[in-house]
Amino acid sequence: xxxxxxxxxxxxxxxxxxxxxxxxxxxxxxxxxxxxxxxxxxxxxxxxxxxxxxxxxxxxxxxxxxxxxxxxxxxxxxxxxxxxxxxxxxxxxxxxxxxxxxxxxxxxxxxxxxxxxxxxxxxxxxxxxxxxxxxxxxxxxxxxxxxxxxxxxxxxxxxxxxxxxxxxxxxxxxxxxxxxxxxxxxxxxxxxxxxxxxxxxxxxxxxxxxxxxxxxxxxxxxxxxxxxxxxxxxxxxxxxxxxxxxxxxxxxxxxxxxxxxxxxxxxxxxxxxxxxxxxxxxxxxxxxxxxxxxx
Length: 295
Fold this sequence. Notes:
Elements (H helix, E strand, L loop, with lengths): L1 H6 L2 H21 L12 H24 L4 H23 L7 H4 L2 H31 L4 H29 L1 H25 L2 H28 L6 H27 L5 H23 L8
């Protein structure tokens, strides 16, 4: 926050580059190399998925401004549909698919992957909308907004270790559902706080949001990894990250569409309400996860 006030928004990307270089150096020094597998990158699948997701995301982002009947919206939906329609047969045909169909045929893998996408959509959508509410409704500066948002980061950092322990004690499915339920409550609190213009309510909602994400995410991630064979753990982890990114992009697009830049309490409440619906769907996906015996 203060760095943006002092140096402008470009400092954010400069810091990301610096942290990325540091992570690369640490990974090079610490991580052990795994046995190499000679595979060809799934270029066709990656392009089909990119066009499929980007087409629908662009259409969703243009919906408020252009309307359903706009050629831009309809054309983007057509591009997205064609991309996703081509993606499935490509993945069945290539030797090293981007998203292996065999993994998705098992509930043990598919359920946590869907839950991951939905929780990421709910979390990241609210992550983007909350700063607008803090700056417009409560007239906070960028630095003050960043300070308030640290509540969510702190509760996430504290909740994650407890989430891992909760998964070991109660099982991954139960821990995932608890985390998603806390996220539903957090979105409800944020919606009510937006309608009432309650600063303290926003603080409580942010704390609960970070806590819920921290409690549920470790079990969701480990369930997806545990569902894959040992030689496919890397692929499973990559698929989980990919679906999380797709879910986050969808959540950001959807909630900002509903918010619409109007800065009205009802608009913020509607956006957070949609985040709550996504979290409810994540509970359903978590309930479909296979029960794993406690160690």
